[in-house]
C-alpha cells in the first residue's frame, strides 16, 4: 500500500468521531496516570522520625478578633496513611541557628492534605514563621507523633505508649486563655 493511500485511510478513520473520542480518552488516561505516579514520588511519605518538606497549598485567616493574635487555617500537601486519633504532627524550622519544633493537631488529615488551625502569638517563634508563609512555600513536618492513642481497640480504649487503659466514662477538660482589651 502506498504511503499517501495509507495516510488518507488513517485521516478518514481519525475523522470519525468515536475514534477521536477514544484517542482523547486514552491520552487523558495516560496523562492522569503519569501525574499520579509523578505526584506520588514527588511528595515524601510522612515519617515520624524524619522531617520532610511539604508545600503550603492553602492559607486562610479566620479571625481578626485581636489584630495582634490572628488565627489561620494552613493546609499542606502531604502523603500519608491516616493520622491515628490522639496523634499529632510536628513542624520543624531553624530560627537564628536554633532548631525549633512545635506540635500541632490537624483539623483535617485525609492522606494527601493536612490542615492546621493556628493561633499566632506576637512573639511566638514558630507561629510568626508560619504566619509569613505563602502558598507554594514548604515547611518541614514529621508525624504521626505523640504517645497517646484513643479508640484503637474499640470505644473507651486508651493507650499511653505501651500502657493500655479502658474507660467506661470520659471527662474532658478544656483550657485556654482569652485576652480582653
Ligand atoms: C500536642 C500539642 C498539640 C498542639 N496543637 C496545636 C494546634 O492545633 N494549634 C495551635 O495553634 N497550637 C497547638 N499547639 C501549641 C503549639 O505547639 C505551640 O506551642 C504554639 O503554636 C506556640 O508556638 P510558638 O513557637 O509560636 O511560640 P513560642 O515561641 O513557643 O512562645 C509561646 C508563648 O510564649 C511567649 N514567649 C516566648 N518567649 C517568651 C519570653 N522569653 N518571655 C515571655 N514570654 C515569652 C510568646 O510570646 C508566646 O506567647 C499544640 C501543642 C501540643 C503540645
Sum this structure up briefly.
The protein is an alpha+beta fold and 181 residues long. The protein folds into two domains: 3-42; 52-166, Beta Barrel (Elongation Factor Tu (Ef-tu), domain 3).
Quick tags:
181 residues; alpha+beta; Elongation Factor Tu (Ef-tu), domain 3; 2 domains; 7-stranded antiparallel sheet; 3-stranded antiparallel sheet; 10 strands; 25% helix; 34% strand; elongated; binds flavin-adenine dinucleotide
Write the layout of secondary structure elements.
Blueprint: H1 3-14, H2 17-42, E1 52-63, E2 71-77, E3 88-95, E4 98-104, E5 108-109, E6 113-119, H3 125-131, E7 138-145, E8 148-150, E9 157-160, E10 163-166
Antiparallel strand pairs: 1-2, 1-7, 2-6, 3-4, 3-7, 5-6, 8-9, 9-10
Flavin-adenine dinucleotide (FAD) is lined by residues 88, 102-105, 116-119, 121-127, 146.
How would you describe the overall organization of this protein?
- This protein has 3 helices and 10 strands; from the N terminus they run ααββββββαββββ.
- It has a 7-stranded antiparallel β-sheet with strand order 4-3-7-1-2-6-5, covered by helices on one side.
- It is α+β, with helices and mostly antiparallel strands and 181 residues long.
- β1 and β2 (71-77) form a beta hairpin.
- Residues 88, 102-105, 116-119, 121-127, 146 line the site of flavin-adenine dinucleotide.
Helix content: 10-25%
Shape: elongated
Q: Helical element count?
A: 3
Q: Which ligands accompany this protein?
A: flavin-adenine dinucleotide
Largest sheet: 7 strands, antiparallel
Q: What do we call the CATH homologous superfamily of the largest domain?
A: Translation factors
Count of beta strands: 10
Q: Averaging pLDDT over every residue, what do you get?
A: 87
Strand fraction equals: 25-35%
Radius of gyration: 25 Å
- N-to-C SSE series? HHEEEEEEHEEEE
Architecture (CATH level 2) name of the largest domain: Beta Barrel
Low-confidence stretches: none
CATH topology of the largest domain: Elongation Factor Tu (Ef-tu), domain 3
Which CATH top level class of the largest domain fits? Mainly Beta
Strand order of the main beta sheet, please? Answer: 4-3-7-1-2-6-5
Helix and strand content put the structural class at: alpha+beta
**Number of separate domains:** 2
For the terminal residues, how far apart are their CA atoms? 88 Å
